[in-house]
Amino acid sequence: MSRDHLPSADRSTDSVEAPFLELLARGATAEAYERPVLLARAEGLPDGRVAALEQAKLLALRVRTEIEGRRRREAELSALFETAHDLAGLRDLDAVLRAIVQRARSLLSTDVAYLSLHDAARGDTYMRVTEGSVAARFQQLRLGMGEGLGGLVAQTARPYVTDDYFKDERFQHTRTIDAGVHDEGLVAILGVPLMIGPQVIGVLFAADRRARVFEREQIALLGSFAALAAAAIDTANSLAETRSALDRLGRANEIIRDRSGVIERASDVHDRLAELVLHGGGVQDVAAAVSEVLDGTVEFTEPEATPAIAVEAARADGHAVRHGDDWVTAVAAGGELLGALVLRGHPGLDPVDQRTLERAAMVTSLLLLARRSASEAEQRVRGELLDDLLDARDRDPTLLRERAARLHADLDGPHVVLAARLDTTAGETDEAAGARRRLWSAASHLATTRHGLAVARDGGTVLLLPLGPGDTATALARRTARQLGTAVHEDVSVGASSPVDRLAARPEEVVRAYGEGRRCLEALRLLGRTGDGAAAEDFGFLGLLLAGDRDISGFVDRTIGGVVTYDERRGTELLHTLDAYFASGMSPARTKDALHVHVNTVAQRLERVGRLLGDDWQSPARALEIQLALRLHRLSSDGQR
Fold it and tell me: pTM of this prediction?
């Protein structure tokens, strides 16, 4: 810089302060105040003049320091005022806390500032707000009482400062906290407590990634910010409590205003439902009455038709639950699901109407239990008839038909005997006995609706159900297992006999069919297929052992019938090729030698077999069944010849 741009020592001979006043006016750096003195010495000015300039320099530097201090205090006071202003108009606590941390970092000129709050439930502190932090692990730190610098501040309720965190032994170092501080690269840390009265609720920190000594004024400034942060938290908590109290008061007022209406509506519903019960009303009558009261459509649904998830939630909670735009409440008694009441298209149900729907469900369960008690006599009669058939006590066809007709059953049509058993309850405990009673009750109800018979027997339940056109024993068994399992809320396995008919004239067929059903039930248990239903036809060649009539032709037809038909219609030798293929150890090369044909011919025939029997026909289980069916077919063909 040229002399023209420097404050000259002799530009004003009367005042040595002039150059320094100029430096003060333009806010020059501290180093610039040495230049007038150095220039005077370089120009050879008298020693007195140089000494005067030196003294003026010191005075100017003191003034400069005072000005900077006042500016700093003014900035600090301005930041505190702005923070207090934010606190006065508190709307978002997180925003206020972020502003406090940001201003603390700016005024103390630190790399990082952060704030932690006390967690009363866990007895430690956790990071709430950070500014300048770059390490994720540091931002998620939790400090126990006495752990780390912050834990010591929280424990003692006093400010603590360290110029080198990792060398400071005044507080407890932990691997987790030290790892977080190391990730952030912090060295010097200042922490001050956030206090509401005598209680420490958190800690406010300022930290640098280099060694630094924090001055007393900086500690006091951070303490002022901590006081504002504590006041913000206290104000927010007070506002939350006030809002909560106002909400509770508002709800109480609403309850008081609605009280008379609630009582009147509840009385009306009670009168209607009581009248229905006294006059022998049914389930649909209850649904109609509640539909009128709730100004909607209420329907009663059977257990298998209920929305399962919603009903289970209603049973667990004991109240009606919302299901889409509908409301569902369970109709249950003693742990047994009897059905559900569904209020359609009424998503805005108020508490009064909800209790009305729940009360209607209770009345419905009572009506169903009453109806069940009345039907139990009929069920016992049905059970006695099936008992007599199983024991072959009554062999008079006319009498059997008359007894069945009174129960709306037709013993001359095709029927299936099903053996049902619970898979999760065994023994002679009260719980097991109760579960078996529920199974018998559900089976009796099913038999009544299907014009069949049911009786408890051998630790399970036996059903005699008619077989509809196009239905199969397997499908009936699986459907029954599913329906009974849904009704009793436990896995129920069902073994079915092959279809039987003309039972009035042949009651001994019921005994044989029951034995077959029990063998299928036991096979399900041994195969681990609990909760399923099956007939002998489902077990492949094992079904020959389970079936009472040893349906050999049926087994052969199910296993290789497609190949037999193909040979008969086209005059091919696929069966002969299969025999040779299995006899040759499933080797195409040895098979072509046994048949005296080309190996390509063998391959083509086996490919045709695969299309007829399925891609898995050579799997061990299928191959075993096919070989058995081939032998049985050959034996039956030899017998016919």
Answer: 0.36
